[in-house]
Amino acid sequence: SMDLLSDNVFNATLNTTGFASGTYFVDINATDKAGNIRTVDNGAVIVISSSAKGAYTNSSVSTVINQPTMISANTSATTTVNLGIITNTSTSGSVAIIEYNSTENQTVSGYRVLGKFIEIETSSEIKNNLKWAWLNISYSQAEVDVAGIDESTLRAWYYNSTTNQWIQESNSGVDANRNYVWANVNHFSLYGLYGTPPAPSPT
Q1: Greater confidence, 149 or 49?
Q2: Contacts 24+ apart (CB under 8 A), 60-66
Q3: pLDDT tens for residues 83-108?
Q4: For residue 19, what are the contacts with CB-CB under 8 A and spacing of at least 6?
């Protein structure tokens, strides 16, 4: 259902009873009294998951060809996702960023997971014109300590849904002084932060 709150401001309610767990992106189609039509891809995001911690949506992101467009999203109390998008043409569209504390098939042999997964989805206008993007995901020292990870080994990995495998981003690193993992990517996906256990103390 949809209710008019004030001039040009509407509130929409969607009954999600019976929906399977997952992330749903809502395309918004609107027609005014003059017959003007506006469509916004991924104008809203609905997350149905017990592991979801927070979400960010911006349906009016504009890019300028070969110039970085910066987005800063606080998806939870301990996570800020900074995203720099560079497109090969000037365009506009939507960006959604969702944080989870767990996901299916999250085990990677020999590595430990930080318990921080970031999904990034964009509308086709941005996705199809993406040149590359800079991704920065923050974490807390407490999260590292609980996970039992050597902080210097933290890297961003992405989930390949075709092979059902986690793959380390080839251009990724960590700033242990500022507590964030960074990656330069040419695609958007579900990302996870992984590292290896600390080396055993000499006996």
Answers
A1: 149
A2: 60/92, 60/94, 61/85, 61/92, 61/93, 61/94, 61/95, 61/122, 61/126, 62/90, 62/91, 62/92, 63/87, 63/90, 63/91, 63/92, 63/126, 63/129, 64/90, 65/89, 65/90, 66/131
A3: 999 999 999 988 989 999 999 899 99
A4: 48
pTM of whole model > 0.90?
no
Please give the DSSP secondary-structure letter assigned to residue 89: S
Phi, psi of 169 (to 5 degrees): -65, 130
Q: Give the other-Cβ count within 10 Å of 185's Cβ.
A: 20
Quote the tokens at residue 77.
Answer: 């109390």
